[in-house]
UniProtKB/TrEMBL annotation:
Belongs to the G-protein coupled receptor 1 family. InterPro entries: GPCR_Rhodpsn (IPR000276), GPCR_Rhodpsn_7TM (IPR017452). PROSITE patterns: G_PROTEIN_RECEP_F1_1 (PS00237), G_PROTEIN_RECEP_F1_2 (PS50262). This is CBN-NMUR-3 protein. One of its GO terms (cellular component) is plasma membrane. Its main location: membrane.
Length: 428
């Protein structure tokens, strides 16, 4: 008997004497009867020692809960792989073209579009890292690659790109809110230099919680009390949990800071923006000089010239009428707001299942491990994340004439360059 076995038996006997009488203690031989006493430190220690003892057994199989596809239908892996690859390819091409179009088209050099380029960059990086991680998870039955720091690094990067996208959407909303509701302050707050500093600040702020959360993701295996214990060579990537951990609610904190608070802030800003635009539309008037404008009947009333000075024309009478259509600037503002509202709405609706899945797994782990639907929640919510990142370039093309023209011009330039290259090769 090794030291681990001796310590395990010693703790087990102490627990049986602590919670059971003599007759009951002799009947308690398994660990399942102790689950209801996991609040006690000795039971928690026993759970950890039992897990280490089980790992030494040659027939031990890690308990994968959410990414185990070996027992699922044979068509599931190819189907999920095809979905991930298709959504990923659309997102990579669309976001890459978005960044190129913005920086090559002078008409798109604006503060809003700089933030959109940053959003496309974070979405592009999220797809590269996230899709690769999910494909490995699918085809390796939830087991991470045998690389040092694989779980921590991938979790940190995925969190970084996700938080950067959220903060970029928040800054987009704040920029439009300032431009419409406080136009005189907009130029001083969001000049070109400060916009670039804001973008840099977005990545710095997103990096801090990403490192904190990513460092808590290791290769783990659950004990019978439900705590994830860090392992060296078995287990899956998950959050290390223990009853005495300092940061016990990382998911709840992340949801509050990166989802709930931004959502309420964005809703407030868009509400104020819509109210302001509505007031501007209602107060829009056209000042029409009577002496120069034609009446509905086709005639025109000409105001008489000053008889004393034939070279001086008197000012015509001005009639103030409400405009049927808002000015072009307001129409453009409304189109931009409509596009940003669409992007934001899709983002939050696609990320809501992702956060819900994390909470479901954390608080209902045992039932999830036995539920086919619960096991499929992880890849489904992952696909929704990448769908959100892939749809943004499509929205830009559908709702912005400048973006649409920029994409068309870029594609024509690339096609013309390829045609010239082929013609030169043919000449050679």
């Amino acid at each position: 008997m090794n030291d681990n076995d001796y310590q395990t038996d010693l703790v087990f006997d102490r627990i049986r004497r602590l919670f059971f009488n003599d007759s009951e203690a002799r009947m308690v031989t398994g660990m399942s009867a102790l689950k209801e006493y996991c609040f006690h430190p000795d039971v928690q220690l026993l759970a950890q020692l039992t897990l280490k003892k089980a790992l030494d057994h040659p027939d031990y199989e890690p308990n994968t809960t959410m990414s185990q596809f070996s027992s699922e239908p044979s068509f599931l892996k190819p189907t999920l792989t095809s979905l991930f690859l298709f959504v990923g390819a659309v997102g990579l091409i669309g976001n890459l073209l978005t960044v190129i179009v913005i920086f090559k088209t002078k008409a798109l050099h604006s503060h809003t579009n700089y933030f959109l380029a940053n959003l496309a960059t974070s979405d592009f990086c999220l797809i590269v890292v996230g899709v690769s991680f999910d494909l490995v998870n699918i085809w390796n039955d939830g087991q991470p690659l045998e690389l040092f720091g694989y779980c921590s690094l991938t979790s940190t990067l995925i969190s970084l790109f996700t938080f950067a996208s959220i903060l970029t959407i928040v800054m987009l909303t704040a920029e439009r809110f300032t431009a419409i509701c406080y136009p005189f302050s907009h130029r001083t707050i969001f000049d070109e230099k400060r916009v670039k500093r804001f973008i840099l600040l977005i990545w710095i702020v997103a990096l801090i919680p990403s490192i904190t959360i990513g460092s808590m993701f290791k290769r783990v295996a659950p004990d019978f009390c439900g705590y994830n214990r860090q392992m060296n060579y078995v287990g899956q990537c998950d959050l290390v949990t223990s009853p005495d951990s300092f940061f016990r609610y990382p998911f709840e904190s992340a949801i509050t800071i990166t989802f709930v608070i931004p959502l309420f802030f964005i809703i407030y800003c868009y509400f104020r923006i819509l109210v302001t635009l509505s007031e501007m539309s209602n107060s829009t008037h056209v000042h029409t000089p009577v002496g120069t404008a034609r009446s509905d009947s086709g005639g025109a009333f000409q105001f008489p010239h000053n008889s004393n000075n034939s070279n001086t024309q008197s000012f015509p009478l001005t009639v103030h009428t409400k405009s049927v259509q808002p000015p072009r600037s307001q129409q453009a503002q409304k189109m931009v707001i409509k596009m940003l509202v669409t992007v934001t709405t899709v983002f939050f609706f696609c990320y809501l299942p992702y956060h819900a899945q994390r909470l479901i797994v954390k608080y209902n782990r045992d039932d999830c491990s036995a539920s086919d639907f619960c096991r499929l929640l992880y890849p489904i919510t992952g696909i929704l994340q990448y769908i959100s990142a892939s749809l943004n370039p499509i929205f830009y093309n559908l709702m912005s004439v400048r973006f649409r023209n920029g994409f068309k011009k870029l594609i024509k330039d690339v096609w013309a360059h390829r045609a010239r290259s082929y013609s030169n090769l043919a000449r050679v």
